[in-house]
Design goal:
297 residues, Rossmann fold, 13 helices, globular, DO-GTPase2, Double-GTPase 2 domain-containing protein
Length: 297
């Protein structure tokens, strides 16, 4: 064997790591961005607001055929989507549909969708949706350093989505907290210049079926208008949405209510992240313990 052959053999790794198809991390996101123009969206909201359910139902919509004027054209995270959809399937033997939650302390998970307009007039578009844990959302309210640590990440996003829990708006005990939490975070991110004149925001009330069922549409609309009036002038675009990804049994709303308009906002226009995504620091565990002790959760 020649020296050249030895050199080639030495360079071949014993094992080659292949992508599992589960959710992507920041490195995987950069790989997509290097190959394709893409729109990157970040979902922010408290635990059980419906972020992961929204992700799962986008996947389910495309399993049924064209959605929101687009055809499914592929995904690098199909197993990741399916993993989060499993509890909504009859094969899970759950009494009612549910969704696997984003684990606490797990940072941000990214899910990839490639779509093409139904008329086949435009090239394939790539959308990557980031799902931040409810733990991350909670600490952003209470720690300025955590807010500032999100600046490199959110600066690379095409859109930032703030979600308000419609079920909590319908609860007399929780409605004022639900009303203010997302608005306080938007204000904090704008005041610290994490978000600014080039940012695009979607302000979403999820679980709109609870709003309709409890006949609090006027209150919910006031929440949306209050946020829009307060912050629309500070950013490039501020859109409001009413969504019910998976309405409760007996609801008057159709499954996926409001999702088409939200997805269309995410797909247009395509914006490629213009900076390298920074690693988001893990939240201090001691800080979380202090928060948990104060909140009793």
């Amino acid at each position: 064997m020649t020296d050249t052959e030895n050199e080639i053999t030495d360079e071949v790794p014993e094992w080659i790591s292949l992508h599992t198809g589960d959710a992507l991390n920041g490195d995987g996101l950069e790989n997509i961005g290097a190959a394709h123009p893409m729109q990157v969206v970040m979902l922010l909201g408290p635990k059980r607001v419906g972020k992961t359910t929204l992700l799962a139902e986008f996947h389910n919509r495309f399993l049924c055929g064209p959605f929101a004027g687009f055809l499914f054209a592929g995904s690098l995270t199909l197993p990741g989507f399916e993993h989060r959809c499993y509890l909504s399937r009859t094969t899970s033997r759950m009494e009612k549909p549910d969704t696997r939650r984003t684990p606490l302390g797990s940072g941000v998970h990214y899910f990839h969708l490639a779509v093409r307009d139904s008329a086949l007039n435009d090239p394939i578009r790539h959308v990557v949706i980031g799902d931040a844990s409810g733990e991350r959302f909670r600490t952003l309210h209470m720690n300025r350093e955590d807010v500032l640590s999100m600046k490199p990440l959110l600066a690379a996003m095409g859109r930032t989505v703030f979600m308000v829990d419609g079920r909590h708006l319908a609860n007399p005990v929780k409605k004022q907290q639900a009303r203010t939490r997302a608005r306080v975070l938007v204000r904090s991110l704008i005041e610290t210049e994490v978000l600014g004149a080039d940012s695009m925001i979607d302000f979403v009330i999820s679980k709109w079926d609870y709003v309709v069922e409890h006949q609090i549409e006027d209150f919910a609309e006031a929440v949306l208008k209050e946020a829009q009036d307060s912050y629309a002038s500070a950013v490039r675009e501020f859109a409001i949405h009413r969504v019910s990804a998976r309405p409760s049994i007996g609801s008057k709303l159709e499954k996926g209510f409001g999702m088409a308009g939200l997805f269309q906002a995410w797909v247009r226009p395509i914006r490629t992240p213009h900076i390298k995504l920074a690693k988001v620091p893990e939240t201090s565990r001691s800080f979380l313990r202090n928060v948990g002790g104060q909140n009793g959760s």
